[in-house]
Amino acid sequence: MWPCITIFRPLLLKLRCRYAFSKDIQLTLVSPSKLIFRPSASCTGVGKKWTRPTGYDTGLKTYNSLTKQKEPLVLAKEGIATWYSCGPTVYDHAHLGHACSYVRFDIIQRVLSRVFGINVIHVMVITDIDDKIIRRALEKSISPTVLARMYEEEFKNDMLALKVLPPAVYLRVTENIPQIVAFIEGIIRNEHAYATKQGDVYFDIGSIGDRYGKLMGARDAAGEPGDTEKRDSRDFALWKASKPQEPSWESPWGKGRPGWHIECSTIASSVFGSQLDIHSGGVDLAFPHHENEIAQCEAYHQCGQWGNYFLHSGHLHLKGSAEKMSKSLNNYISIKDFLESYSANEFRMFCLLTKYRSAIDYSDASLNEAQSSLATITAFTHDAQAYMRGQLQCQAVQEGALWERLAETKANVVRALADDFDTPRVVNAIMSLVYHGNRHLQPVTKPDRSPRSPAVFGAFLTYIREVFDVLGVDLLDRKEAHSVDSSGTLENVVEQLARFRSDVRAFALSVEDMPPGEPAHASPRQRSEKLPLLKACDTLRKDLASMGVHIRDRGPNSTWEISQKRPAGQDKK
Predict the structure, then answer these.
(1) H or E, element range at 352
(2) d(CA 383, CA 457)
(3) For 47, left (φ over 0), alpha (ψ -120 to 50), or beta?
(4) DSSP secondary structure letter of residue 22
(5) How far apart (Å, rounded) are the C-alpha atoms in residues 529 and 518?
(6) How far apart are CA 110 and CA 112, in angstroms?
(7) Which pLDDT tens digits describe the chain residue by residue (573 residues)?
């Protein structure tokens, strides 16, 4: 039998604060001065200490912002990861800082799904009502709804252009107002929020004691501005009373609209309930947004650990600047403008070259590195295919060593991805594989009739293509090739042109047998007659290169490839 005790009210309040979310003890108030202590059946966790979840151990490790270190990734259900992410506030164009975060987490979700067989259930909120949206709508003399829908559609198109997989569902704030109101009512019932005479509702940070600050620790920040009825300067708005010229909805506290943080807590809880595996966002959202989300959810669900893992992506900085790329700083490049000069593949490779939680510098040099890596892979692909077709003659290949190198690379890639999704290590492993493959593809002028090994290079190409396909990089450029010429006519024309040039070049390089009675000194004259043909072949090769068609002469044979041609003057941004 659990005890019922009588205590003075000040001590009662302290006990309720201390044990409000304990996994071990649940308190029931049976009179103004009596509490019943009993075991709790709610969520796990006590205080600020992180508790390792019970469930399915994936064998992966990921950096958890709640503990500031790598932790084993344990999911509530085997083979399923519940994932919530903060989507955009749709009042302006999305920029590369946003793109960097969304692409990085898209890479992680692809890895979980394609490499480790985990079904990621991803939900994203669209913030379509906010102070910024209201201000911008007034500036443009249009309704906030029209403005939000316009930029929401642009955001989704930007994500599609960047090859970011859409979530299972996008959920708009304005379509979840009844759920938000009910969530706030639940927090008030649990005595962790209060309404003011003006019709605002604030979260009562003092009611949860030292539990506030799981992500960023105790902070002395003054909190968001509000009316003088706030109990604590750190208290933040759950509901904002209606103001003139602002959209509003009915509520028990009068007409108004949701605060910023409550939308995410409500929508995540409406889909996933009282426990969430993974929450993601940019590092700038850790405080106060994610901190306040945690406080709200644990107050509503009366649990000690709502979100088990918080993943944060690093900022994107302009080279030479300590400031992040931001609309408020007016130092951003829109996604649409960027994609006029660079491809989605190049941007994704740019993201892959740094760890997802690291800050990243945006510069011509860093983008050139991404372009160079892709170009190296493309060149190897064409050389390996030329070798497999018999168009590239090489010395004998050490086939056994290459098979061993491939097996070692596969193991290294899986280890890197299981260690906090370490994509720079993955790219390094692939580039090392390409290097060792290239060492065996050095052309020779005279074939030595040694055995050929095309199969191992086919395995190299298949694996490299598969890895980058998992990471979201399409080495085949299927979409771009389709947009250039869906019927393949361009490729067929280039093939015929290159073959004709190769035949002419072979004729010009050939040494004919001298007819009977022909003086020996006639040979130099005949060769000189063929020089214009060789010069014409070289001229054609150079002219085609300027158009994005690259012909490579390999002894008597030639190979070709088409690279993406950029408009003049748009190579750099």
Answers:
(1) helix 344-352
(2) 10
(3) left
(4) -
(5) 17
(6) 6
(7) 344 444 444 444 445 444 444 444 445 444 444 444 433 434 544 467 899 999 999 999 999 999 999 999 999 999 999 999 999 999 999 999 999 999 999 999 999 999 999 999 999 999 999 999 999 999 999 999 999 999 999 999 999 999 999 999 999 999 999 999 999 999 999 999 999 999 999 999 999 998 999 998 866 544 566 567 899 999 999 999 999 989 999 999 999 999 999 999 999 999 999 999 999 999 999 999 999 999 999 999 999 999 999 999 999 988 766 666 766 666 689 999 999 999 999 999 999 999 999 999 999 999 999 999 999 999 999 999 999 998 888 888 899 999 999 999 999 999 999 999 999 999 999 999 999 999 999 888 777 777 889 999 999 999 999 999 999 999 987 554 444 444 467 777 888 888 888 888 888 887 665 555 555 444 565 567 788 888 898 899 888 888 888 888 876 678 888 875 444 444 443
Write the DSSP symbol of residue 289: I
Token readout for 310 is: 């918080």
* pTM for this model (two decimals): 0.81
Closest CA to 214 of 95, 45, 332, 75: 45
Distance CA 424, CA 70 (A): 17
Residue found by looking up tokens 């996994």 in the block: 23
- Structure-block tokens of residue 391: 């168009």
Strands 360-362, 316-318: parallel, antiparallel or unpaired by DSSP? parallel
Backbone angles phi, psi at 123, to 5 degrees: -120, 135
CA atoms within 13 A on the CB side of 356: 30
User: What distance in Å separates the CA atoms of residue 95 and residue 486, rounded to the nearest whole number?
Assistant: 31
Count of alpha carbons within 13 Å of 213, Cβ hemisphere only?
10
Nearest alpha carbon to residue 303 among 337, 326, 271, 269:
269
Beta strands 557-562 and 549-554 are antiparallel
In the chain, the largest separation of any two C-alpha atoms, in whole Å, equals: 128
Q: What are phi and psi of 62, to 5 degrees?
A: -140, 150
Count the neighbouring beta carbons within 10 Å of the beta carbon of residue 142: 12
End-to-end CA distance of the chain: 73
Report the C-alpha gap between 81 and 51 in whole angstroms: 18
Answer for the pair 129, 143: CB distance below 8 angstroms, yes or no: no
CA nearest to 541, candidates 522, 526, 560: 560
Q: Quick check: bond before 288 cis, omega within 30?
A: yes
Q: Which two tokens stand for residue 186?
A: 């639940």
* Amino acid, single-letter form, for residue 249: W
Q: Cα–chain-centroid distance for residue 443? A: 40
Q: How many Å apart are CA 395 and CA 567, to the nearest integer?
A: 40
Residue with tokens 């490839």: 561
The helix/strand/coil state of 152 is helix
Q: How many Å apart are CA 299 and CA 187, to the nearest integer?
A: 6
CA angle 172, 107, 116 (to 5 degrees): 110
